[in-house]
Design a protein that fits this description.
The chain is α/β, with parallel strands linked by helices. It has 2 domains: 219 residues, Rossmann fold (3-Layer(aba) Sandwich), CATH 3.40.50; 124 residues, Rossmann fold. It is elongated. It starts with a strand and ends with a helix. The structure holds adenosine-5'-diphosphate and 6-O-phosphono-beta-D-fructofuranose. 6-O-phosphono-beta-D-fructofuranose (F6P) binds next to loops.
Length: 372
């Protein structure tokens, strides 16, 4: 634990708070339920903060534990929420938290409510805010990666990714059924403003013809050329290809509907019907898969342990069988300083990280095979 900010509290933590922030992710509720149970087992009260950092600034806290006789127990409706998508606590994009005054106000509210530590479930934006809160105010914070985008550094997985992938795959299977019936081509757009992870993995899993990712850095003209090329190749009569499926990440710089319009214009000389489907928020909703529920539980267990042991400004990370970071009681879950995670996230998104380069290389190698 030497690398981490350890907070000298002088007394054991008796009360902590949890918030969910940024884009909701299936499994956030499972993480919340697990965190409350683990804290309860250690005799620590838990308060839920409503609507992410907005609720922290406004002091919107409500108890997630209560006493039953001499026992501390989780409140009743938490168990029901554990298997549900979205977030029971609510989430927000909170402009006030970008300002130091907003973060100071949140720390003031937390201290006035005699809360000794904060658990934040969210993506890289939310954990940037958590890092600044810990740095500027000294308030103890531990982060749990929860974002369907899978764009956080130091962790190979985040809560919600597996559920989102399964939703995309089911949607693509449905689209493929109708596409094959009419020998059509489809461009399916999936979420991922800065990250093409969902598009990349779902393209492989659905045996699509190609994936278009923001990390490929193509211009709008190049994207249109590439889709025209793919559709022409797939629609050749001697190929006898019943459907053409191209999965495009939201962050690729041309909206799916315009892309399809432009490509259709260019393909007037051949008989092919090209359609666009934007999955949008369908990708983010829905109940979490078994994998996400388990991941959420294991993250929450390690995160509560770290918080109660006095760690702060750290994030739990999924690193099965990898050396690095400090150990937790779960050999697949490691603790990283949030600052280190944010550095790696920036490299993931600007393409300088070895992980992004390896992903792109694998995708390039797969493109030739996918189109067959
Ligand atoms: P996600 O956590 O899913 O990446 P956002 O990027 O929208 O989602 O971030 C969620 C919230 O986290 C923001 O609305 C803001 O309140 C806080 N946040 C994000 N970036 C920062 C930052 N650089 N400084 C302080 N707070 C931030
Ligand atoms: O960060 C998760 C995410 O779903 C991105 O993939 C997407 O670009 C963004 O959130 C959409 O956010 P909102 O629901 O606020 O439009």
């Amino acid at each position: 634990m030497g690398r981490f900010l350890l907070v000298d509290r002088g007394e054991l933590l008796k009360r902590i708070a949890v918030l969910t922030s940024g884009g909701d992710a299936p499994g956030m509720n499972a993480g919340l339920l697990a965190a409350v149970k683990v804290a309860t087992a250690r005799g620590v009260e838990v308060l839920g903060i409503e609507r992410g950092y907005d609720g922290a600034i406004d002091g919107q806290f409500s108890p997630l534990t209560r006493t039953a006789g001499s026992d501390l127990v989780p409140i009743g409706n938490l168990e029901r929420a554990g298997g549900r998508g979205g977030t029971l606590l609510g989430s927000s994009r909170c402009p006030r938290f970008f300002e130091p005054q907003g973060r100071a106000a949140a720390a003031g509210q937390l201290r006035r409510a005699r809360i000794g530590g904060l658990l934040v479930l969210g993506g890289n934006g939310s954990l940037t805010g958590a890092h600044k809160l810990a740095q500027e105010t000294g308030f103890p914070v531990v982060g749990i990666p929860a974002s369907i985008d899978n764009d956080l550094g130091c962790t190979s997985d985040a809560i919600g990714v597996d559920s989102a992938l399964n939703t995309i795959i089911e949607a693509c299977d449905r689209i493929s059924d109708t596409a094959r019936s009419h020998h059509r081509a489809f461009v399916v757009e999936v979420m991922g403003r800065d990250s093409g992870y969902l598009a990349m993995v779902s393209a492989v899993a659905t045996a699509a013809d190609a994936a278009l990712l923001p990390e490929q850095g193509m211009t709008e003209a190049e994207v249109i050329d590439e889709v025209e090329r793919l559709v022409r190749a797939g629609a050749r009569p001697d190929r006898d290809k019943p459907r053409i499926l191209i999965i495009k990440a939201e962050g690729v710089p041309v909206p799916a509907t315009r892309l399809v319009r432009e490509v259709s214009e260019r393909l007037r000389d051949i008989q092919v019907d090209v359609r666009a489907t934007v999955l949008g928020h369908i990708v983010r909703g829905g109940n979490p898969t078994a994998h996400d529920r388990l991941l959420a539980g294991r993250f929450a267990f390690a995160a509560i342990g770290a918080l109660l042991d006095g760690a702060s400004d750290v994030m739990v990370a999924w690193r099965p069988a990898v050396v690095g970071g400090a150990e937790t009681s779960d050999s697949s879950v490691r603790l990283f300083p949030i600052a280190e995670m944010l550095e790696e996230t920036a490299a993931l998104l600007d393409g300088t990280s070895s992980v992004t380069r390896a992903r792109l290389q694998r995708m390039k190698a797969a493109q030739g095979v996918l189109g067959l």
